[in-house]
Amino acid sequence: MDRFIYLTFDGLSRGLVYAAFALALVLIWRAARIVNFAQGSMAVAAVYVAYSVTNATGSYWLGFVVALLAGLLLGVLVERVVMRFVDHSSPLNGVVVALGLVLVLQGTLGIVYGNEYQPVETPFSRDAFEVGGIAMLSRYDLFVFAAVGTVVVVLTLLFTRTAVGLRMRAAAFAPDVSRLLGVSVGGMLTLGWALAAAVGSLAGMLVVPTELGVHPTAMDVVFVSAFTAAVVGGLDSPIGAVVGGLVVGLLLSYVSGYIDVTVAPMAILALLVLVLLGKPGGLFSSSKARVA
Amino acid sequence: MTDMQQKASASTVPETGLNVPKRRRRPHPALVIVAGGILVVALTYVLPPFRNYQLATMGAYFCVTAGLTVLTGLNGQLSLGHGALMATGAYTLALTQNRWVNLPLSFAVAVLVTTAAGAVIGLAAARLRGPYLAGLTLAVAIVVPSVTSTFDETFNSDQGLSVILNPPPETIPMERWQAWLCWGAALVVVLLLALLIRGRFGRDLRAVRDDETAAKLAGINIARTQVLAFVVSAVCAGVAGALFAVLAQSVSPGAFPLTLSLFLVMAIVIGGLGSLFGALWGAVLLVLLPTLAQSVGEQTGSQQLEGNLALVVFGVVLVVVMLAAPGGLASIPSRISRLIRRNR
User: Fold this and answer.
1) Which domain covers residue B144, as residue numbers?
2) Total of domains in chain B
3) Which of A62-66, B305-309, B323-327 has the highest mean pLDDT?
4) Nearest residue of B to residue A90, measured between CA atoms
5) What residues of chain A lie within 8 A of the CB of B262, using their CB?
6) Transmembrane segments in this chain: where (chain B) (predicted)?
């Protein structure tokens, strides 16, 4: 039972990171109908920037802030320089271009930083507190809960309570009408990419220290987990992304804890196949009106 | 090249409903293959051993790019999992070969196993479209190498396995023998593919890609066509993987990273989706560009540049081709889009 409690908290903590990453995927999917396969590499790039800043200044928090800003900037760049010019008549085009970006980013990072895992420090201890002799949560887990919770709340407020959020939703769901009403549809698209990339960077900052460290391909497996999370929740639903992330995190945690760590990727693949074949719209898909 | 020009001219013809490109009488694929075979054998006698090895690698890549271009270009299914299918073929060959040391038998088993793997993934893939299919195959590409750690007693995790080979007859150097083997396999595979896509099956593939409803009305079994396309393509990848195992005389998960699958996609996009000649150019580039990047890296003395420059170059090429000529190298992407739009 102790183990179960520990694994549950561990799974929730991991799951929230996947949820954040899945949210980034959902943001772009809602805005542009593209699954951003370059999200992982973009996040790694931001983490590397933070790594450099932290090493140069000795301040984790400065690196953290710079990573989020770098994510924003990278999102703007990718949308303005590349994705804007993709012929969106076929979903394959966006996928292939994103894969090209993956190669460019991974290669560039490899040239600059080398292809070794470089350990990254956490700002808080990862030793779990014990409550009544049961190991439950670490300070770092609490930090993850707080960070992802903040992101979810801020995004929800942004999309439901502010004029910018309304414009973004309008631009995504009815671009032509929005344009007639004076919404800068292109600008909203760029903003969506920037936000998504920043959220992705945050997820990268949270997950990289808990694994082997930072590496040009460090986010590949995380990407697959987050994609699974997004599909479980339905690519269209932010709430679904959060729930999907938690499902994936718990599954990973239980499988690694009770069976073996090396089985975890296969569990993810199995979940993805099951959901895609059983309920491809995801458990929380809502929008039936908008097609492609 | 004539193939691409032909496609370009076909796409400029106004839509008449019957989009039949004007066909120039082309030589029978068998003739082209025989000519290619003669050329390769001649080359193996001229080239030094290391170049022969590279030539052999090209042949192995040609197998998989040809299969992938049929799947993606002609049937509209984008697979990022072909690197994993190659790994399946390679490991199967290694395991069989190390037990019985019988190369033809090992190849047969590798083909059988990848057929099964392709059927499983293909069954799932036939129900998926666009980014969902890409995501699923991406997951396959990332997860399959980790299987080697799960069953490390069989696969010896990251170290991988070495492959026992009977040495070729003494008069033939190893590299030349490898080039013959790889190109022999590649030419057989490509000939079969060429014959296959010339006939009814090829027509079915294109019909399903272009318009599923119309294809269904014409009596084509859509799911079966898609699964078959995936199986055919998977077998090509399996053969290529087995050839790589013979080439390196070892297999390890590190030889089949995600970037390999992405390279394969780049190779078929750049050569023109759906064209077997395009697949050949893609295979040639897959060998030449990294070599070029490596020599640049050696000249500048930067180790980090060596492996990574090729990634950057491939990535830039992929992005530029997709942005500058979406459907320019081949008019297929726009047709895929029509297929998917109608399907939603």
Assistant:
1) 28-163+173-256
2) 1
3) A62-66
4) B337
5) 99, 102-103
6) 30-47, 53-71, 103-125, 177-197, 227-248, 254-273, 280-297, 309-332
